[in-house]
Amino acid sequence: MRPQEVLNYWQRGLLSDQEAMRHCLAGIQRTRSHLLAIHTTLQQEQHWYDSKMPIYHSIERIINSVLQAISELPPYDPREAL
Fold this sequence. Notes:
Number of helices: 4
Helix content: over 70%
Strand content: under 5%
Shape: elongated
Largest sheet: none
Radius of gyration: 17 Å
Distance between the termini: 11 Å
């Protein structure tokens, strides 16, 4: 379910707080997976990014900050989202 759908269903009382939180945590987990993949690619190609994309280090800092924030969230069990 998309974030806006979760919000709409929750606001209309069609999702409990717990169900809405599970959907949000599932979305955060997917975002984390995407960011880790990007981060891995950046690390593997760092020599290219350093020369061709000076903003590389800023992107890496942003990704690391978001990953740190995500790591501070409660654990997510995908079986609970069903």
